[in-house]
């Protein structure tokens, strides 16, 4: 099985993801309408309805099961990138299911219920844990960063930027810095543990773009002076 992510044109043109499956390979595509080119037997693609949980989590009805031998290309919208993750038997990362673009044969899924206070902040009730061996593709806004957790030295990551984190990680919703800093930032996860955490810079890119727009001087001052003004004053 071979997966290649290639950039075509400028960053505003989007990306193309090319898949090459050999005989016996199977890939499940959760956004089948993004497939723009296919080469292989006509019966190499079989669309089916998702299960109820998948329909609810993805707000979609159909997924495509692609069987090798075949090659096909899927298009990604401008501003989005694809992160492929190789899973093994020891993998324990928890993901947002809505970010899942594809998964290969050999991958199984389990739901993990979040704590009530975490639900209120993330506006999500569950995470998905992928087990087994295989490959998954995560659709993200902006570049994807990866860093190692430490058992005792915490890292603070914007709560809305997290893509995946280990199930064993210890998480605490908080802010950091002095009073002015904590009043002008969104909630962060204070994380310790073992393993790697994935996060994206896309949310901050949008904020910087808005800041660079020609807002009135009064609105900009209010956003900076009023506690949490950047959240309430758009």
Structure description:
- Helices cover 18% and strands 46% of the residues.
- The mean pLDDT is 79.
- The radius of gyration is 20 Å and the shape is globular.
- It is α+β, with helices and mostly antiparallel strands and 234 residues long.
- Strands 5-6-3-10-13-8 form a six-stranded antiparallel beta sheet, with no helix packed on it. It has a six-stranded antiparallel beta sheet with strand order 11-12-9-16-19-14, with no helix packed on it. A four-stranded antiparallel beta sheet has the order 1-2-7-4, with no helix packed on it.
- A hairpin with a 7-residue loop joins strand 1 and strand 2.
- It is built from six helices and 19 strands.
Topology (SSEs and partners):
Blueprint: E1 2-7, E2 15-21, E3 26-29, E4 35-39, E5 45-49, H1 52-58, E6 62-67, E7 70-76, E8 80-87, E9 93-95, E10 100-104, E11 107-113, H2 116-122, E12 126-132, E13 134-141, E14 144-148, E15 155-158, E16 162-166, E17 170-174, H3 179-183, E18 188-192, E19 196-200, H4 202-212, H5 217-225, H6 229-232
Antiparallel strand pairs: 1-2, 2-7, 3-6, 3-10, 4-7, 5-6, 8-13, 9-12, 9-16, 10-13, 11-12, 14-19, 15-18, 16-19, 17-18
- Whole-number total of structural domains: 2
Structural class: alpha+beta
Topology as H/E string? Answer: EEEEEHEEEEEEHEEEEEEHEEHHH
How many extended strands? 19
The quaternary organization reads as single chain
* Portion in strands: over 45%
């Amino acid at each position: 099985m071979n997966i290649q992510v290639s950039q075509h044109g400028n960053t505003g043109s989007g990306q193309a993801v090319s898949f090459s499956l050999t005989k016996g390979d199977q890939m499940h595509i959760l956004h089948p309408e993004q497939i723009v080119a296919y080469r292989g037997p006509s019966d190499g693609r079989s669309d089916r309805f998702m299960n109820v949980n998948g329909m609810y989590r993805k707000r979609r009805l159909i997924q495509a099961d692609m069987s090798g031998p075949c090659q096909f290309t899927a298009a990604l919208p401008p501003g989005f990138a694809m992160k492929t993750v190789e899973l093994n038997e020891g993998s324990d990362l928890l993901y947002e299911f809505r970010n899942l673009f594809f998964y290969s044969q050999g991958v199984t899924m389990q739901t993990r219920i979040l704590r009530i206070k975490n639900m209120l902040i993330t506006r999500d009730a569950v995470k998905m844990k992928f087990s087994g061996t295989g490959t998954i593709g995560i659709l993200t806004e902006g570049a994807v960063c990866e860093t190692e957790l430490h058992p005792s030295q915490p890292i603070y990551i914007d709560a809305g930027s997290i893509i995946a984190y280990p199930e064993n990680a210890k998480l605490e919703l908080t802010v950091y810095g002095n009073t002015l800093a904590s009043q002008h930032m969104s909630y962060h996860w204070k994380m310790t543990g073992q393993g790697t955490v994935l996060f994206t810079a896309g949310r901050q890119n949008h904020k910087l773009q808005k800041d660079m727009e020609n807002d009135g001087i009064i609105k900009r001052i209010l956003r900076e002076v009023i506690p949490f003004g950047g959240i309430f004053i758009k």
